[in-house]
Predict the structure.
Amino acid sequence: MHELGIVFHIIKEVKKAMQENNCSKVSKVVMNIGEVSTVVPYYLEDCWNWAVSKEEGFQGCKLEIKMLDAVTWCDDCKSEYPTVAHGKTCPHCGSGNTWLLRGNEVEILEIEAI
Amino acid sequence: MQIIHYLSARKLKIMEKVKVIEIKKSIFEENGREADELRAELKKKGVFLLNLMSSPGSGKTTTLIATINAIKDKIKVAVMEADIDSDVDAIKIKEATGIESIQLHTGGMCHLDAEMTRQGLDNLSEGLDLAILENVGNLVCPAEFDTGAVRNAMILSVPEGHDKPLKYPLMFSICDVVLINKTDVLPYFDFDMDKCREYIAMRNPAAKVFPICARTGEGVDSFANWLLEEVALWKN
Ligand SMILES: Nc1nc2c(ncn2[C@@H]2O[C@H](COP(=O)(O)OP(=O)(O)OP(=O)(O)O)[C@@H](O)[C@H]2O)c(=O)[nH]1
Ligand SMILES: [Mg+2]
Ligand SMILES: [Zn+2]
């Protein structure tokens, strides 16, 4: 469900870029997806394939997903650690005074269009 | 030789036609801009928009009915009900409060974005003080899409457990108010109110917490008063 909403937003954004560049057909969309973005790549692709089949100029458009690792910053010991393995608690010093540095991206990187 | 030359020339031509367009833009960015625009317009018109979120069945509609009945004589209120595919809630609100209440069809979407919210507002009558949006029942997606609301409120109901703020940090961090509903069933669940307040404060130290029982109306007055104050501030 969530992924379908995201797909509609991607299509809207891509359409705008196509218009600005006088393109009528898009063949590839490259996305950056963060590891803790709440977007499941497998569902995203499923929704994508369904949605582009109904969208003019999008038929057969490929979705390329680049996964980005999530990294959290600990403000007590000033170090970084992988978010998925350790969550909110710093593995170096046990502090909870931490915040996400990156890994929640849902970003359109580039498209290929004619 | 010649063939190779021809092929590479052809390839080059095709390559030339395909443009690689760099976008490098978060899909939330455009919505964020639209939401800011909507808020600015609402400020001009003096309309306060409240976005109410929760898991399915936490008591959004019941809470709205109790709240609206407490304030409808003081300010002009209308409700937009975002449901995936039914108008049950919109009818319920109208019957129980008598105020204007419309159904927004989300077309299968799990959240409302700023554009859909604007379309909904366009369908409400003029001269409102307060418009309330009952968002789609879900703790993940609505948190990611700014609707253009002036304030965000969410409901956590007792049966869902006091650890929800740990599991859905984003939702709790964007909400100005957390209503803890169904306090009448506290005796039957191991819900720890102090722990819950502590977890909410970890995500959002500024969040106001109101324990309520929408069914009996207990505690709803505090929330209603907060809302009246916020509306008055917005119209200043
Ligand atoms: N015991 C108890 N039940 C409540 C309370 N508030 C709501 N309920 C019940 O919880 C159920 C769901 O309430 P709704 O108000 O429809 O919840 P909702 O969040 O609008 O639900 P959706 O729109 O379907 O997501 C109903 O059966 C209500 O009667 C309460 O304070 N105590
Ligand atoms: Mg409801
Ligand atoms: Zn540390």
The radius of gyration of chain A is 18 Å.
